[in-house]
């Protein structure tokens, strides 16, 4: 007789009690979180809250990709890292923190740039991918791999006081990144936190929104951000959303796109 292994370790389930109490999540949604395999690209400002909240939520497996090391100027906002980890690979520092938060989450750290590994291999078999990178080439590489594999992609971006978050999912009729931003701007127009600055709590706001959207997407709760780009201006304390649509004949998702019915 084939006996199925139990989903949770002994003593694990009570930590998810507050989720299970939510009508929109319940035991079934929590089980989906446990069975989910999530790919997170970037263990920096946005990656920090995303990783912390997904591990705390009981996501079963998190693969985290980043080629950077922890530096002093990261600590103003990248709350998953700490002073005693300066010089350590960010993915290793993140793994250490996450094991302390939830030892029942399997963390797969990969110290690499996304363009140095096969994005298609990374995306394959994942429930969801999360774009928490700080550069456009990696965003487009991840977007193309997700569109080809039909994996939903939650994407966040921040600069100075403003941030945005959306869910790209051409497989269900929503646009992909290339539908909105088809052409890479020249290198000198690509500003990052390094050159433009960023207010420390902003990645916390946007990253936590990304984590919330991920929990909703995995459990099926509420209404996700397909076709909606949420913008937040922390300097003025204002949020708004704009509708976004696929581009007919998009070079990336055109062949994979399915009209909503
Ligand atoms: Zn597209």
TrEMBL record:
Keyword list (alphabetical) reads: Membrane, Nucleotidyltransferase, Transferase, Transmembrane, Transmembrane helix
Show the stretches that span the lipid bilayer. 38-59
| Classification via Gene3D superfamilies | NAD(P)-binding Rossmann-like Domain (3.40.50.720)
Source species = Mycoplana ramosa
Instruction: Identify the domain of life.
Output: Bacteria
Protein's UniProt name: ThiF family adenylyltransferase
Q: What's an example of a GO molecular-function annotation for this chain?
A: nucleotidyltransferase activity
Per the record's keyword annotation, is Transferase included, yes or no?
yes
SUPFAM superfamilies reported in the protein's UniProt record: Activating enzymes of the ubiquitin-like proteins
Matching NCBIfam families, A to Z?
PRK05690.1 (NF004281)
Q: Which parts of the sequence belong to the THIF-type NAD/FAD binding fold domain?
A: 16-250
- UniProt xrefs under InterPro entries: ThiF/MoeB/HesA, ThiF_NAD_FAD-bd, Ubiquitin-activating_enz
